[in-house]
TrEMBL record:
Taxonomic classification: Bacteria, Pseudomonadati, Bacteroidota, Flavobacteriia, Flavobacteriales
Classification via Gene3D superfamilies: Spore Coat Polysaccharide Biosynthesis Protein SpsA, Chain A
Species assigned in the record: Flavobacterium amnicola
Listed SUPFAM superfamilies: Nucleotide-diphospho-sugar transferases
Record's protein name: Glycosyltransferase family 2 protein
């Protein structure tokens, strides 16, 4: 079973992710980093620290590298072909991570494939931010590490799912909500079928999720494709590990997220990249916790200013608040 890691211009998080893999994970065959444009000087340090990994780059990687190095606005197109091709050429089941995810407890993938095949399991979530809307409490144990669950979704039809939860008709959601057809919780439960990463996928399931051509992240497309898949293969199942074995970070984002005005998260990435490259930002001191920029406050201010640093802290707070509002517990 291979480990695929989607990565873009956050080598400090990738370092933490890879370190955690070698610390806690076993029974995998290979690690492949799917890079979408991280500048070469950062990749060189990653290759030196982790010489056994493979790095495959997207078609736009060189263009994005130059844009980052020239401090230009970066192309926002997602590398869907890179992800699909890597999955299509991977093992029948593979572990998919993003660079800002890391293991926090030991896990062996030695017999995972056999257990998943024997039980027709297409996806196993490795974390869910302690939010049981994203999984369910009603599970069936497969072994000491793995359990399956029945998704609690209200509409199985891709057409009606799209109509109810993604219609552009004004006030339709409010109207449907009066009759209990629509609610934010009902919509969120469809993520019981899907994870953008942080899961074990069967090759056929993941490729089917991304069969829709798109240049930006639009997760409703993956959920629609998931519904189509389970209609075609009704005996297929989804599952999760008995406890969460991954955590994810909230210090930066690979995508531009404007949680506060006049703050450039791309610049924040540049600052952390350089401090990490210079050896001034230790990312491996606490494997179980997210990165802490307060410990390098002076270094950040030296490269920016006090206002930038304080806005960054506010940005992180607002980023976390989005997940807290969804019912996630990101502190456990």
């Amino acid at each position: 079973m291979e480990i695929l890691i989607k990565s873009f211009n956050r080598p400090y998080y990738l370092d933490k992710c890879l370190h955690s893999v070698y610390t806690y994970a076993s029974g995998f065959s290979k690690i492949i980093v799917l890079d979408d444009g991280t500048p070469e000087k950062y990749l060189a340090k990653i290759r030196t620290k982790y010489p056994k990994i493979d790095i495959i780059q997207s078609e736009l990687a060189l263009k994005k590298q130059k844009q980052i190095e020239n401090q230009e606005k970066c192309d926002s197109a997602i590398p869907i072909d890179l992800w699909k091709n890597a999955a299509a050429n991977s093992t029948d089941y593979f572990i998919l991570l993003e660079d800002d995810m890391w293991f926090v407890q030991p896990i062996s993938f030695q017999n995972f494939s056999n257990d998943l095949k024997a039980n027709a399991i297409e996806m196993v979530k490795l974390f869910w931010l302690n939010n049981h809307i994203l999984v369910t409490k009603k599970t069936i144990s497969i072994n000491e590490n793995l359990e399956v669950y029945q998704p609690e979704i209200s509409i199985q039809s891709p057409f009606w799912y799209s109509f109810v939860f993604h219609s552009k008709i004004p006030k339709l959601k409010g109207f449907l909500g009066l009759f209990g057809v629509f609610s934010k919780e009902k919509e969120m439960k469809y993520y019981q079928l899907y994870n953008v990463a942080g899961a074990v996928f069967s090759k056929r399931y993941y490729v089917s999720l991304w069969q829709t051509n798109q240049t930006v992240v639009a997760e409703k497309n993956q959920i629609i494709n998931a519904l189509k898949f389970f209609a075609k293969y009704p005996k297929s199942k989804v599952g999760k590990t008995k406890s969460e074995v991954l955590k994810t970070g909230f210090v930066t984002s690979a995508l531009r997220k404007d949680f506060i005005s006049d703050f450039n998260i791309e610049k924040a990435n540049v600052v952390l990249n350089e401090l990490w490259l210079e050896g001034k930002f230790e990312v491996l001191s606490d494997v179980n916790s997210d990165l802490d920029i307060t410990v390098i406050k002076n270094e950040i201010i030296a490269k920016t200013d006090v206002n930038f640093y304080e806005n960054w802290l506010l940005w992180i707070h607002n980023f976390k608040q989005v997940y807290l509002n969804f019912g996630c517990n990101i502190n456990e």
